[in-house]
Specification:
The structure holds two protein chains of two kinds.
Chain A: E1 5-7, E2 10-13, E3 19-24, E4 31-38, E5 42-50, E6 53-57, E7 64-68, E8 74-78, E9 87-94, E10 104-105, E11 109-113
Parallel strand pairs in A: 2-11
Antiparallel strand pairs in A: 1-3, 3-8, 4-5, 4-9, 5-6, 7-8, 9-10, 9-11
Chain B: E1 3-5, E2 9-13, E3 18-25, E4 32-37, E5 44-49, E6 53-57, E7 60-65, E8 70-75, E9 84-91, E10 95-97, E11 101-106
Parallel strand pairs in B: 2-11
Antiparallel strand pairs in B: 1-3, 3-8, 4-5, 4-9, 6-7, 7-8, 9-10, 9-11
Classes of the chains: A mainly beta, B mainly beta.
Chain lengths: 114, 107
C-alpha cells in the first residue's frame, strides 16, 4: 500500500506571495491532518479534515487554510507569506477522524520564504 | 494551555538502555503517543497509551501514569539505527507534541 504523498517536496517563495501544498492520504484513510515543524516550535497542529469538513483547528492565523476533496486528498494554502512561515509542513492521514488513531506522516514539504 | 516537557538530548552506548521521560499538563487528555523521527524523515508511530501501565513492543516499551501526568519511552538493546528524535504527543482531541528528545547512540 502506498504511503502518504506530499507535493511539492521543496518550495521557495517570496514574502507576500501565497502557496498551496498538496497531500494524498493512504488509500482508505479518510482523515488528513496538517502540521508545521520548525526547529524553535517543534511540531504544531494546523488543522484536521474529515469528509471534506474541517474538524479541528490549531492556533494559527487565518492566513493558513485548507480543504479536503471527495477523494480525501487535501490541500493547504498559506496567503501573504511571512519569513516566519519557513518550515517543514507535514500532513498525516488516519483511518478515521479524531486523534485517537495512529497517524501516518508524509515526507513533508520544505517551504522557504525569502 | 498545553505544556509538554521532554529532555532535549540523550546519549547512550550501543546495547544499553535509555529512558526518555515526558511530563505533560494539558487541558484535556485522551491518550499519549510516542513517535520516532529520523533526521530528514517523517515521524513514524511507536506506541499509544490510553490507560495507566506499561505497554511492551519488542525492544521498545512505553509507560503512562495519568495521575502524575507522566510517561516514558524505554529503548532497550540500543542499536545505531535508534539514533533519532523521539516525540511524545498528547491527544486532547488534537495532537500536541513535545519538542522532542534527540537520542544519539554511540558505538
Amino acid at each position: 500500500k502506498a504511503g502518504v504523498t506530499q507535493t511539492p517536496r521543496y518550495l521557495i517563495k517570496t514574502r507576500g506571495q501565497q502557496v498551496t501544498l498538496s497531500c494524498s492520504p493512504i488509500s482508505g484513510h479518510r482523515s488528513v491532518s496538517w502540521y508545521q515543524q520548525t526547529p524553535g516550535q517543534g511540531l504544531q497542529f494546523l488543522f484536521e479534515y474529515f469528509s471534506e469538513t474541517q474538524r479541528n483547528k490549531g492556533n494559527f492565523p487565518g492566513r493558513f487554510s485548507g480543504r479536503q476533496f471527495s477523494n480525501s486528498r487535501s490541500e493547504m494554502n498559506v496567503s501573504t507569506l511571512e519569513l516566519g512561515d519557513s518550515a517543514l509542513y507535514l500532513c498525516a492521514s488516519s483511518l478515521e477522524a479524531g486523534s485517537s488513531y495512529e497517524q501516518y506522516f508524509g515526507p513533508g514539504t520544505r517551504l522557504t520564504v525569502t | 494551555g498545553q505544556n509538554i516537557d521532554q529532555p532535549t538530548e540523550m546519549t547512550a552506548t550501543e546495547g544499553a538502555i535509555v529512558q526518555i521521560n515526558c511530563t505533560y499538563q494539558t487541558s484535556g487528555f485522551n491518550g499519549l503517543f510516542w513517535y520516532q523521527q529520523h533526521a530528514g524523515e517523517a515521524p513514524t508511530f511507536l506506541s499509544y497509551n490510553v490507560l495507566d501501565g506499561l505497554e511492551e513492543k519488542g525492544r521498545f516499551s512505553s509507560f503512562l501514569s495519568r495521575s502524575k501526568g507522566y510517561s516514558y519511552l524505554l529503548l532497550k538493546e540500543l542499536q545505531m539505527k535508534d539514533s533519532a528524535s523521539y516525540l511524545c504527543a498528547v491527544n486532547d482531541y488534537k495532537l500536541s507534541f513535545g519538542a522532542g528528545t534527540t537520542v544519539t547512540v554511540r558505538a
